[in-house]
Design a protein that fits this description.
This protein is of the alpha/beta class. The protein is built from seven helices and six strands, in the order αααααββββαβαβ.
């Protein structure tokens, strides 16, 4: 079963393939039959789509066509080349042109994810018995379209990531004059209000100690 239908996969591949750099052709310096052919970019592309679509690990999606290590190596190769950054910008600009980004209303929140492999952004998780974890500060527009994210150790408070997350708006382009930023009670502080005011933004912040409507008991 394909991860996404062919009518969507083919245009995505055409755009992806157009961004791939040309690979130089090297004369083989090894005896015939001793070289493993390079896995095709189209195969790697479809594997990455499957990982994104199904949320599975690289090991789970690997098969006789391509191993997990090859998928990771090719992914890192494309990240270092800036390919995925260009693809994200193209997708966002296309959505804005066809549907329209809602930038007058912005939502920012943080979540904690596991980071068993460690890394320079990992830290002790306060919700997972001190195991390594990562905090993701996510920003989305009024229709839920992702606008940017910031990574930090899991024990970093959400409010400390507000400023660097808002800085991601600089990559989008012209912004509306009036922007309302929706935040949960974890951001309820004067420091947050000063940060938003300094950027000319309005904050709609949930108050500490007051349950959100979805958390309040239903009145019969």
């Amino acid at each position: 079963m394909p991860a996404i239908p062919s009518w969507l996969l083919e245009p995505l591949w055409d755009q992806f393939a157009a961004l791939l750099p040309d690979r130089p052709v090297y004369a083989p310096s090894h005896p015939p039959g001793c070289h493993k052919p390079r896995i095709g970019d189209r195969i790697i592309f479809e594997k990455l789509i499957q990982v994104l679509r199904f949320g599975c690990s690289y090991v789970s999606i690997a098969d006789c066509a391509c191993g997990a290590t090859t998928i990771r190596d090719r992914r890192d190769e494309r990240i270092q080349a800036g390919l995925f950054g260009k693809l994200k910008q193209i997708a966002r600009e296309s959505y804005d042109r066809i549907v329209g980004l809602v930038l007058e209303e912005i939502v920012i929140d943080g979540c904690i994810a596991k980071a068993p492999g460690g890394g320079d952004r990992a830290g002790r998780s306060p919700v997972d018995r001190g195991k390594l974890g990562m905090k993701r500060s996510l920003m989305a527009g009024g229709r839920g379209i992702p606008l940017g994210r910031v990574l930090a150790p899991a024990n970093r408070h959400d409010s400390r990531l507000l400023a660097p997350t808002l800085d991601k708006l600089d990559d989008i382009g012209p912004l509306p004059q009036d922007i309302t930023v929706h935040l949960d009670a974890g951001y309820d502080s004067q420091k947050t209000r000063d940060e938003l005011a300094g950027r000319g933004m309005t904050g709609q912040i949930a108050r500490k100690g007051i349950k959100a409507p979805i958390e309040s008991p239903r009145v019969l």
